[in-house]
Write a structure and sequence with these properties.
mainly alpha, 15 helices
Length: 304
């Protein structure tokens, strides 16, 4: 304290007492967070012991990242430290989430060697809200099944439930998967492929068919072809004829090949892989069984 008997401190003395710079204390004082308790005859600002405690609180709140507006509301008693801290935590969570997306996008850009245009698009796609991502998927599913009243409702619902939202803490791989998936959904050729698969599904069913009935073929295929794979049966081998007979009966092989290829090809397999990456689930199973069936049919169906 000063030796003039007032017990008050100048800014310089306050700076030495707290370890803060004179410039910082003067700025906080000018902003109204640390008003002087008095003025010296020469007009210099003076502070008391309570000012020291107030200054320590200001420093603590500022080091925690609070703005001066929040600091002033606490000091004025308009809000408690706990209330301001809770609001600041929410703001930090949003900032951290944004920074993680930024980091993931930059990692993807670096890995891909993206152009300026691709980087801009990638950033926009990655920052879409959950509602916007859901809308993209809902519009895609609606286009895929529009007017196909006999399409299997279970398949339609599975498509709708496909989670399109990035996780709160996305990895670069998940951001990359979402961007690639969004680009795939924008591709007219891919949309046409998916529409054709839905049309085949609707054509193979009647209004009286129970929901999920079209899944029976897939389950039967996985069972029979899986057994053939375990035995080491090659798709072009004569033994594969028996597998196809048990699975397809007298059905036209060419028609079956066309339908299976519509729903199981490289691009649709990639689509399913991307969804699995986004949801953090294992990669889709049974692709090898469908690939075996396609190869076996191709070996027996004359090329058009």
């Amino acid at each position: 304290m000063r030796e003039d008997g007032t017990g008050l401190l100048t800014i310089g003395e306050l700076a030495r007492a707290t370890g803060l710079t004179v410039r910082t204390i003067r700025y906080w004082s000018d902003e109204g967070a640390l008003p002087p308790v008095a003025r010296s005859p020469g007009g210099y600002r003076l502070y008391d012991a309570a000012s020291v405690a107030r200054l320590e609180l200001i420093r603590t709140l500022r080091e925690l990242g609070l703005g001066l507006d929040d600091v002033r509301t606490v000091l004025a008693g308009e809000r408690t430290v706990a209330e301001v801290a809770a609001a600041h935590v929410a703001a930090l969570d949003a900032q951290i989430s944004s920074l993680k997306v930024t980091r993931a996008v930059l990692s993807t850009v670096a890995r891909r060697g993206s152009s300026v245009e691709e980087t801009t698009l990638m950033n926009k796609l990655a920052r879409l809200s959950a509602a916007e991502r859901r809308r993209i998927m809902e519009e895609f599913v609606e286009e895929m099944f529009h007017g196909l009243d006999t399409a299997d409702p279970e398949i339609r619902e599975r498509m709708r439930r496909s989670a399109m939202d990035l996780p709160d803490d996305p990895t670069p791989e998940q951001v990359d998967a979402w961007v690639e998936l969004a680009e795939l959904l924008r591709d007219p050729d891919f949309r046409a492929q998916m529409r054709r698969a839905a049309e085949f599904n609707a054509a193979d069913r009647g209004h009286e068919s129970p929901a999920g009935a079209s899944m029976w073929f897939a389950r039967r295929l996985v069972q029979l072809v899986g057994q053939a794979l375990e035995r080491g049966v090659a798709p072009e081998a004569p033994e594969a004829d028996g597998v196809l007979r048990n699975l397809l009966g007298d059905a036209d092989r060419g028609a079956v090949l066309e339908r299976v290829q519509a729903s199981h090809n490289v691009r649709l397999a990639r689509y399913r892989e991307l969804l699995a990456t986004l949801k953090g689930t294992p990669a889709p199973a049974h692709e090898k069984e469908f690939a075996w069936l396609i190869a076996a049919l191709r070996a027996r169906v004359p090329a058009p």
